[in-house]
Amino acid sequence: MSKKRWWQAIGAVIIVALGIFAYQTRQVSHAGESITAVGSTALQPLVEAAGEQYTGEHLGTFINVQGGGTGTGLSQIQEGAVQIGNSDLFAGEQKGIKSAALIDHRVAVVGITPIINPKIGLKNLTTQQLIQVFTGQVTNWRELGGANVPVVLINRAQGSGTRATFEQFGLTNHRSKTAQEQDSSGMVRQIVATTPGAISYVAFSYVNSTVRSLSLNGVRPTEDNVKTNRWRIWSYEHLYTKGQPRGLTQRFIQYVQSPAIQKTLVRQLGYLSPDQMKVERDVHGNVTRLEGGKS
Amino acid sequence: MKTTQQLEKQLKRHSKAAKLEIWGKVVSFSALLLIVAVVVGIIGFVASKGIATFTSNHVNLWDFLTDKKWNPGITDANGKPEVGALPMIVGSFLITILSAIVATPFAIGTAVFMNEISPNKGAKILQPVTELLVGIPSVVYGFIGLSVVVPATRAIFSGSGFGILSGTCVLFVMILPTVTSMSVDALRSVPRYYREASLALGATQWQTIYKVVLRAATPGLMTAVVFGMARAFGEALAVQMVIGNAALMPGSLVDPAATLTSVLTTGIGNTVMGSLQNNALWSLALVLLLMSLVFNLIIRLIGRKGRLQ
User: Fold this and answer.
1) Residue range of the domain that includes B101
2) Domain for residue B107, yes or no?
3) What ipTM describes this predicted complex?
4) pLDDT in tens, A161-191
5) What is the total count of domains within chain B?
6) pTM of the predicted model, to two decimals?
7) Which of A266, B53, B82, B115 has its Cα between 20 and 30 A from that of A140?
8) Is residue A67 classed as helix, strand or coil in its secondary structure?
9) Chain B residues with CB inside 8 Å of A180's CB?
10) Cross-chain CB nearest to A159 (options B247, B248, B271)
11) Which of B70, B73, B160 lies nearest to residue A198, judging by beta carbons?
């Protein structure tokens, strides 16, 4: 009995020793390197597609992309829990974020347009009218020359990047009145398409034939108008890192910013490339014209 | 001499069965410890986060519970953040109570049919049906609600179709199987001789059901209803899809409204840990947790009263 015990104990020690040896000498190289990017659901499709392409080209790397929202992305990167925080907003615009420690990598520009149910029959609004609609001063579309249906506002959730951008540039910093809130653009489009009198706002890539996008002050929501800032409701999509990125994080961000991705994937997925922009906007919303207008 | 020593050793040593006994006790006790630790951990975490709104952000508890404006990102004219949770609390209770009111007669009716009127058919058809209903994931209920209930409400009452009425319809179907199966258990636990005595006195079957069985089963039925309410109160996904998520005091049943859970699920991804917006959401979670504790207490209380009778 006791002899058997001894052998068992020796066997266990050997196995543990082998395990430790194997762990210590495991292949530590590029193989198995992985990073995590968390945050904005508006940016998620791009980062996911780019990540898939990158890992396809660089075997053994793994890029894990998760949604969760802009707030989650920024707070996770601030805590250093992930390598990349995806955000629709400048970090300085989000409350509770110390933007000094974070480094901004702009990877795309996204235009946002008001959308309405097609049966309302309007094609153009002035900014003033849009503000009246969203602050509740206009409650029936008849008052603006549309069909006789009550206005149904549909907002994105508070703190959503799309909503923040729309309120800042579409409503010129007026706050939308409290109304129903949805937490995804796909849901917003479906509700606007099926609810008479509904109005909301989505990124350009979400607009399809079931809803109608509105011109503002006679300016149509097109990519060309975004490039020149004639269409003012747009925002950068940011990848934030804590401090200078290193290793795979750095290589991946460079990859996303490279012409290979900017000229293909970014445009295919309905974003604009920051290189296409003829203007630049800072965190306070000040716009400067870029020299020469790269295109 | 040697044999007595051996015998002593043999007798004092734990037998295989005794070792197994100890092993079993250790396993079950550690499982218990783990669950207790998890529960205490969750309550502690939610409470510490939820209280931060009042301690570190200096929001008045009374204002939090009675104000009607919910804009945690914005401060009002006095520099106070707008964190009035009343619309959500009212929305949650309204939708819970309404769905319980609608579901109870159907659930008890079904239970009576399954247990008293036609136990055979009940066991064959209704039992599997209710069990199936329990198993349907809440997102499926929400999706059906979004594509059937909401357009129907819109067609009948105009407006957007999102609101407490749609939420009630979805929750009614969701809690129905829970309440039904618990009502069946309650009716089943009524002793057989109650029915026999009643029938022997010349009562009809309906009289027996109405005057004897249901009366005797009242505590159990109430437990079933409160259990259903607890489920309705905590349901997030399906409700969020059909209620419209507008943090407004519900003016009518077809206006968009919000519940505690729907505000939590839409908002949590857009706030930053440690900020007031995030803490305010944790406070809502704390309210939610406290309410489900209250529901549990009510169930216990009813159970105890039932036993005393």
Assistant:
1) 83-308
2) yes
3) 0.71
4) 888 899 999 999 888 888 888 878 888 898 8
5) 1
6) 0.78
7) B82
8) strand
9) 160, 162, 244-246, 256
10) B271
11) B160
